[in-house]
Write a structure and sequence with these properties.
homodimer, 360 residues, alpha/beta, Arc Repressor Mutant, subunit A, Rossmann fold, 14 strands, elongated, DNA-binding
Chain lengths: 360, 360
DNA sequence: ATGACGAATTTGTATTTACATTTGACTGGT
DNA sequence: ACCAGTCAAATGTAAATACAAATTCGTCAT
């Protein structure tokens, strides 16, 4: 039975404030008054007040007095609502909003607040975000890696997280050097099934455009490669065009010539994702290349633009919000179990056939 | 010059932990040792240690000793990174991601973390989010009101925020009973210019579909109304179709008959926003109504779908991310000045002409 | 009225002393 | 090898005292 005087005073004060209906900024009893009321020394009163101040119940001003501060701690269960940090590369567009929505819904149901930061796929912004989150005292982190296929200065930070038992879950991709659980779709299979589909439609010369700095890009490329190998597609290795995600907007300006040459020589293109595919569609429109008559195009991710755009895009469904929910569930699971098992949640990709592929 | 012993000891300990490279869970000096080192009483040492413990630098165990805990507080500037709460109705889609991105960029530059909650336009979820944010100790709030045109149970909470000087900024709309600054576009003018444009194209019977539970809906309706009045459009009052935002997805199921009758009787429709307009376009497609030949449609907000969809939509440009930035700047301004002047940031809407309106 | 000054009040810092409670290691017996 | 008891060490609680620093407010002179 913890029966200490200063704790008794803490409780008494809370009761007192509640019963007297003291609002914010009302003057409270002085230390001396509390001493005589409780018949104890000033130090004991001070210890109680110190505790109350750190709990944000009161506010003390030297020379002036003690005041009631803010909301008087609604429930006695005074633990602050816990929060989870979410770090994403982007989220203004594409599939990201859906993923984050999925995360939010699960976190919210579990009573966690969500703190969001965006890295714009820049590792330094990731560093910044991680530092922020940690100094905010988050209970866990859900991170989409930035430039997951390149060396990364944050390895030390993640190691520290591991040591201090702050749970981390990745989504979309995972850093190979950080063994945390991950929610993602099976990107290799995604790359494979779009290529398989093109081949099943009779295409034999198929270009691929992939992100270079990103594990997802590598995996999708790998699926494309395996499909080409298994189906004895010749020359595929020379038909691959690599880009860095930072180039995404500018690649169609700077590398247009090279890209057009490549496109001229094939009958179909596997695009790293829908966003890229849609840019390609626009370029084709400008150049008078008809899709799918002159060129077949497939994307991956099934973003909403894929179904709305001019030539509805054949693509691979991305689990969007389900993936976000899975990531959040993984994190909550590790928080509950208090251990970090690196069990991933991998989603099986499904082909979505629309109008951007011709049979030959 | 604050030159207190216990603060000196706090600094000394931080230095010591850093210089000796003590990791988490390493045993630290005992209180007695610190007493002899600094030549002071044990209480003074304890005061310092108490501070360090509350800062999460050390961890004390009765009967055992003092231990180094976690990360040793990187910079001496030890105030936890401050965070701002952002409460939005939705954000997975439409213009919301852009708005939130704008907010994030400004907050991030100013060194604030962003905490995000979503209400799904439900006042109770707004209550929940507000409570969460407050218990997290945010420095300020950026809120998009939920059902801003209906009575709201959170009035008391906002009054409390006002009293306790926690700055609040609204965006998109403001509650009429809560006098906080607001960043929004001029919705009345937006409603007016689309109607004006339809009239300038020769339309004389123009329907309007507006959100009922939302100040933005009221204002856009008001613009539509004024334009009709000024241009002597007859019968406009009977051509208005109201809906609640919660009906949005289902209205085309339940009220289809009534809506079709309405559409049959007019040559043009003003839609509350692009999202609605696009749903309408799809319905028209299904029913074989050609846009713009049989029916002209205008939206408001210039979401990305407006430019991509089948019949590119004539609409009004929404400042998206600029509006988000403005909201964040308003908030940071009031934080800096420490007073809340209700100065709004209103954006002038601009018509974006695409292909969904026919001249008659 | 206004301003300067100072006393009283109130919280902050510092020391000293005493005892309580918990932990961990040591010791001795089985 | 194991168990139980003991004891020292470490932190926790409590009190009395003294002085420091900031604020408030009344008084007095201008």
């Amino acid at each position: 039975m913890d029966n200490y005087k200063y704790l008794a005073i803490v409780d008494w004060v809370k009761q007192y404030i509640a019963s007297e209906k003291l609002g914010p900024n009302d003057r409270f009893l002085t230390e001396k008054q509390l001493c005589t009321i409780h018949g104890c020394s000033r130090q004991t009163v001070r210890q109680a007040l110190m505790m109350l101040e750190s709990e944000n119940v009161i506010c003390r001003v030297r020379g002036s007095g003690t005041f009631v501060s803010g909301r008087p701690a609604p429930q006695p269960g005074t633990q602050a609502k816990k929060s989870i940090g979410v770090i994403s590369t982007y989220f203004s567009d594409y599939i990201f909003p859906h993923i984050v929505t999925g995360i939010e819904s699960v976190l919210n149901d579990a009573g966690y607040a969500m703190q969001l930061a965006i890295t714009h796929n820049q590792v330094l912004e990731e560093t910044q975000a991680l530092e922020n989150m940690l100094s905010q005292g988050v209970q866990g982190l859900i991170v989409e890696p930035s430039k997951s296929a390149l060396p990364n200065p944050n390895a030390g930070l993640y190691a520290e997280l591991r040591r201090s038992d702050i749970p981390v879950v990745f989504f979309n991709a995972k850093y190979p050097w950080a063994d945390f659980p991950c929610a993602a779709m099976d990107d290799e299979t995604a790359g494979r099934i779009v290529t398989d589909y093109l081949i099943s439609c009779g295409h034999r010369s198929i270009a691929g455009i992939f992100a270079l700095d990103d594990i997802q890009g590598h995996k999708r490329y790998s699926g494309y490669m395996k499909s080409c190998l298994e189906n004895n597609i010749a020359g595929w290795e020379n038909n691959v065009f690599w880009f860095a995600t930072s180039d995404r907007s500018s690649m169609f300006r700077f590398a247009k010539g090279k890209l057009l040459d490549l496109i001229d020589s094939v009958s179909a293109v596997v695009c790293y994702n829908d966003r890229l595919a849609i840019s390609l569609l626009q370029m084709c429109k400008e150049k008078g290349i008809r899709v799918p008559q002159d060129l077949s195009v497939v994307g991956i991710d099934d973003s909403r633009y894929a179904s709305i755009c001019d030539v509805p895009l054949t693509t691979v469904h991305h689990p969007h919000s389900k993936l976000g929910e899975a990531a959040a569930e993984l994190l909550l699971g590790t928080i509950d179990r208090r251990i970090m098992l690196p069990e991933d949640r991998i989603f099986v990709p499904e082909l979505v056939i629309r109008d951007s592929v011709a049979k030959v």
